[in-house]
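Quick start: read one record
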Amino acid sequence: MTHMNRRFFIGTGIAALAAPPVLAHTKKSTYVLPPEFMPREVKIQNNFPAGEIHVDPNSFALYWTLPDSRAIRYSVGVGRAGLYHSGEFYVGAKRKWPTWTPTPDMIKRDPKSYARFAKGVPGGINNPLGARALYLYTPERGDTYLRIHGTNAPQTIGRAVSNGCARLVNDQVAELYDRVPLQTRVVLHPKNGQPIQS
């Protein structure tokens, strides 16, 4: 397991990759994504190989690594207390407009919220997995039921609210999805209480 120190990632102030605010449409309202949540290219301290995903839960950031110690930084929502799982994974499957079914553990923890969805929710704008999903696997377990996915609740970006997955707004997860091939290495770094990006 790769551990990061608090100076792991350093932003360079390069302009965001997508300049205008993102209007994230949901069934209830239109949410304007704050400018600080826009993707941007940054310099990273560690020389990770290009073509990996690293999630830093301390700064609600997902990094798609590039050559020459650089990365594209996306803002994410992460798992809430007790539900975030650090570790090393790989992308074992990818889906556009995925269906969603709460896990038995989710239903057991909160039957009021999840039992009515036990038979699944079809893909679409109202689906909690949003526009795209990357399915995280390990060699030992296969599908871990952890996902990097879109969301129909864009106001949850930058917060610890999920059942363990990392979420991006739909426009950004669609862009990431196109960059990421199957078998890509994914590292969900541990929560340590210290911000990683200075």
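The longest helix spans residues 170-179.
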